Amino acid sequence: MPNTPWSATSQNLGQDFHNWSGGLRFRPSRLEVPEDEETVVALVRAAARQGRSIRPVGSAHSSSEIYVTDDILVSMAHICGLREHDAQHHRATVGAGSQLTELSKELQAAGMTLSNFGDVATQTVGGAIGTGTHGSGRDFPNLSMMLVGGRLVTAGGEIRTFDVEEEPDFVQALRVSFGTLGILTWTTLKLEPLHDLHRQEWCLAFESCMEVLDKLSRENRNFDFYWYPRSDEVKIRCLNPPGEEKDYGAFARLAKDETGPPHEVIPQHSDLPHRFEEMEYSMPAEAGPECLGKLRARIKERWRRSVGWRLLFRYIKADDSWLSEAYGRNSVSISLHQNATLPYWDFFLDLERIMRDHGGRPHWAKKHSLRAAELRPLYPMWDRFLALRQEMDPGGRFLTRYLRGLFGC
Predict the structure, then answer these.
(1) Which of 8, 30, 208, 395 has its CA 20 to 30 A from that of 306?
(2) With helix as H, strand as E and coil as C, how does 307-318 read?
(3) Residues near 193 by Cβ (< 8 Å), separated by ≥ 6?
């Protein structure tokens, strides 16, 4: 069975479904893994007739409750792979259930690659687009921006085709909508010609990194870093075309050096050895260093003994996706982590206040405490999105209790 963590194509679960970290456990009435788009249409139409809700799920890597349901859960795992491609214009139509690592192997054979990846590549195409998954680099927006067309099953059980050139507003709304405007089946993506990247990781003191942070972020194609609370050191990760890398040996120690195609060298290893919970906020890029400094001080003061997990600091280019955390502004994202077997909410909530004070917007797929009243002021297109969502799904077919709390409906 391709690209799915589940053992059956359609079943009454009768047991808890859990996400990657194990932190989310819920019991859908039914899990459906349709073989084709026509079956998705039939499922949505049946749900409408029966007054039931239906929620899409990708690889279940998200730690927020956006796919938690006690009704129908549907995976696109069988609607996957490369359907067609245009090597001249670097576009490809792929199944929304395609897992990024596996899809990248097919794209590699076709001479193309995604321009960027997140910290892992276990997500599906639909999940990565729908939640605003991103990597790092001042010139790279989140992965949703690669969506330029495709096919969507609407709440009425109809197939809607879309193209960014013909419906720019609709695509801007759809890109980060976590399955609340419809269920993506096939997606057309804007890609890059296949190329290699040279990845180098350097270890250095926190203060040394911050002194040259702006320079580091601007002279590398991809740049981010981890801060380790107990050692107070950082590990910077720099990726560049071979021959364009920089030498930081004067103030840092080289810890890793490898070259390969983007899908092999940008993400961490997919089989992460430790499960963790995560909170992430993105703030204006100029506010990132100050926010990190305050987070560092608070962690050293209150949390260093109980939380030894690293913080991840990344850059995201501004975009025009209505509910993107980088909508209208170049951004910095800061991710907090804690071992999934240990308490985490008090830690997250304490530091969440600091990130909100710096204009932070939450990552939809990560832990956060905000609901509609707090979210609305953060997104200039919030009301337009809700109006479109109501127009497309007046019966709330794609909503759950959690999503109603997010949207205030």
Answers:
(1) 208
(2) CCCCEEEEEECC
(3) 90, 111, 112, 113
Comparing CA positions, the residue from 208, 241, 209 lying closest to residue 222 is 241
Distance CA 156, CA 46 (A): 10
DSSP string, 80-110: -SEEEEETTTTEEEEETT-BHHHHHHHHHHT
Q: CA–CA separation, 32 vs 77, rounded Å?
A: 10
**Interval 174-195: pLDDT, tens:** 999 999 999 999 999 999 999 9
* Integer Cα distance of 354 and 249 in angstroms: 34
Q: Are 381 and 327 in contact (CB under 8 A)?
A: yes
Burial of 315 (0-12, 13-18, 19+ CB in 10 A): buried
pLDDT tens across 233-245, in order?
Answer: 999 999 999 999 9
Cβ atoms of 221 and 137 closer than 8 Å: yes
Whether the pTM exceeds 0.90: the reply is yes
Rg, the chain, Cα only? 21
